[in-house]
């Protein structure tokens, strides 16, 4: 049910990159495809220095429902579907080591105030705050990629 196109609305994270470059965020859209009935293939389309990039990731199912795993180059990224209605929003948790991020995706580039309140509750529940929450532009999305990168 997560399959289809999603727009990245916001992310809460103590990531150093976001702290330094949060003022330069570009719109990002994700296309989710379900492979073999259980794995998630995620193609993220975003701009970097005026070039549209596609970043491809494949998350394998973990033992619990709604949990997925990406084994990267020497690192592991856990993805958990925290809350979703499948038709308008999805709140995802990503954990790499001790670092946790909370991401809000919408089927459109804008979500309701109720959904935004839910996201903020999830953010606070993870011990994160408004000062590490970043909001993405609602315009300037890439529909295709000039370049691509695969993270397997």
UniProtKB/TrEMBL annotation:
Pfam family, one: Lipocalin
Occurrences of domain Lipocalin/cytosolic fatty-acid binding (ranges): 3-136
Biological process according to GO: complement activation
Matches recorded under SUPFAM superfamilies: Lipocalins (SSF50814)
Localization terms from the record: Secreted
Any one Gene Ontology molecular-function term assigned to this protein's record: complement binding
Source organism, top-level taxon: Eukaryota
Gene Ontology cellular-component terms listed: blood microparticle; extracellular exosome; membrane attack complex
Key words, A-Z: Disulfide bond, Secreted, Signal
Keyword Protein biosynthesis: no
Keyword Disulfide bond among record annotations: yes
PANTHER family, A to Z: COMPLEMENT COMPONENT C8 GAMMA CHAIN
Protein name in UniProt: CO8G protein
Origin species: Upupa epops
Protein encoded by which gene: C8g
